[in-house]
Every structure is written in C-alpha cells, then in structure tokens.
Amino acid sequence: MNIGIIRERGAFDRRVALTPPVVRRLCSAGHTVWVETGAGDGAMYTDTEYLRAGAQIAYSPEEAIGRAELLAKIGRPTGAELNWCAPGVVLMAFYHMAVADRGLVETLAERSLTAIGCEVIQQEDGRLPVLAAISEIAGQMTVPIAAHLLRSSSGGRGILLGGTPGVPPARVVVLGAGVVGFAAARTAARSNARVIAFDRDPGKLRHMTEHAAAVETCLADEDAIGEAVAGADVVIGAILVAGKRTPHVVTRAMVEQMKKGSAVIDVAIDQGGCIETSRPTSIAEPTFAYKGVTHFCVPNFTADLGRSASVAVAQAMLPYVLTIAKHGVEGALEKCSELARGVYTLRGRRP
Fold first, then answer.
1. Of 31, 96, 248, 295, which one is the catalytic site residue?
2. Residue 333 domain flag
3. Which of 10, 67, 142, 204 has its CB 3.0 to 4.6 Å from that of 75, i.e. a possible disulfide?
4. pTM tops 0.90
C-alpha cells in the first residue's frame, strides 16, 4: 500500500505522524511511504533520515497526498488536504469530531473518504491506545505549566509548586483520574504539591491510590468539587467522554470563588473544555484571565514537544497502519474491532 505523511500545518505544530523508525517498519513490510519534504523538521527528523528508512520524498503536500492510499496525520485534515485526496483514501488523524466544523463530515462524504479517528480507536476494555499515548505526555506537561503560571511575573500567586521546609506547597485539584489526570496528579505529587484528584469511577481512584499514594482522592460530587476548587491554587481539567463534548463540571460561579492569581489548565479543551469559563487559546497566546484567574486552554499543546509527541503517536499508530496496509480498510475493520470503533466514515458513509 502507498502511505502518505505530510507536514502538520497547525500553528506551532512541530509533530509528525510517523517517524523514521516506524517508516522503516512499514517499508520492511513491503509498503511504500511518501513523505512530504520537511514533514519531520519540527520533530528534528530530516528528509535524509526518512530516505535511509526507505521512504520516498514528495516535494509538495499535494504530491504526497495524491500518491497515498492511506494518509497518516495528527491534526484533522484541512479542506485543501481533503480536496487533494482521491476517492477511497483512508485518513487517520485526531478529528475530535465533537468540536469540529460540521462541514468536515459532509466533505468526507462528498469525497468518498474513510476517516479513522485516532482519539476513538478503542479496545474492548474501553482503553483508547493512540489517545493514551499523547495523553500521558499532556498530563506530565501540565505540571511545569502550572509552576510557570503560579509565578508572580505570570500573574500568579507567587507560590512555589512543591513548597520548601516551612513554606507550604501549592494546592492542586485534578478533575478526572484517567490517563491525563493520573499523569498530572502523579507528576504534581512527585513535585511535592498537595494534590487531590476527582473522578466518578471508583476503579480509577483506586488505581490512583495504588500507584500514586501521595495523591488524595475523592468521588466527584458537585459540592466537593466546588469546595476544592475554591481553595485551589491550580485546577487541572482532565475529563474525557470518548467521542462526545466534555461536560462542564466547574461552573462559572465556582471559578469566581477561586483566589486571585490561581490558575486553570483545561486539557479537556480539545473536546470543548470541562470548565465553563474556558475558551480555546493558542501556543502563541496561551492564557487569558477571568476574574483574576489565569486560564491555559491550548488545544493539542503537546504540539510544542514535537519530538516526544511524534515518537509516542507514531508507535501507537503503527499496528493499526500495518493492519490497514496489509488487509485493506474493509479487511482491517473485520479483523480489528478496535479500528472499527474508530471509524467516522467508511468510503464516505457513516458506519
């Protein structure tokens, strides 16, 4: 099968969907990989490395897409990219359809394209393996971001995240104990912050307690969340409802009760955000203040860790790309129920 890789064109996105080691695996299996020149530059992968891995270099995105039967991306495809696709092409990407433009599905249908959402490829136990790979990075990233937002020069409360002898640490509230929440809570606790994590699933809280004993846990309840948020220095929103818009669990009124100089990091902004006062920001302008509370709400902020994020995503995507390349999309969906759960459109039709 011909597999295409193009440069991510989202603002400040330095990631690439497939890395040279993964391309080598695909080429060794007998497939042809077309890589747009410069596609890996943001992740510090050169065209020469892709050539050594067995890839072919395409000198425009249109050429790479035009040669592809399967296109691997991270960000959802643009209108121009969709128009360059031949009917029947398979596009793997993080679509986040719950907050995508309604015209996207219409274009996929008109072009008879197959769209597989990396964020909704789901195993029997409910785990989202490709999303989990990037979520672990996102969770860890929240802690240095929180430490920065708490600095006085950032408009924060001037608090050291982990405290020192005689100086109390910051209070960190984590909403959600899934992959992002667990990584965020554990990383914050290892920095000696005082951390409490909320979730509706006792099993996730039990996992948190077993593997991050320093984290206090609490079943999610509106009153308990409101009380914790009011006393927090940092609130991290890490709630995900697969394939759906994230519900608001922190209301505007709760935010208005927070201390001046405290911070909100809404990782759930990719699916609409779990904090009512959140709105999407960007890596160029990552924050805004509401009633003295700094909000960091950058969708896909792992784009700023181009190398690590690319390695994680590429490794997670590889088995699914190999399955499609070997069996074709229909055969792959029959053999792999995880992939079948990730299909938004199949040759333009909703499954």
1. 96
2. yes
3. 10
4. yes
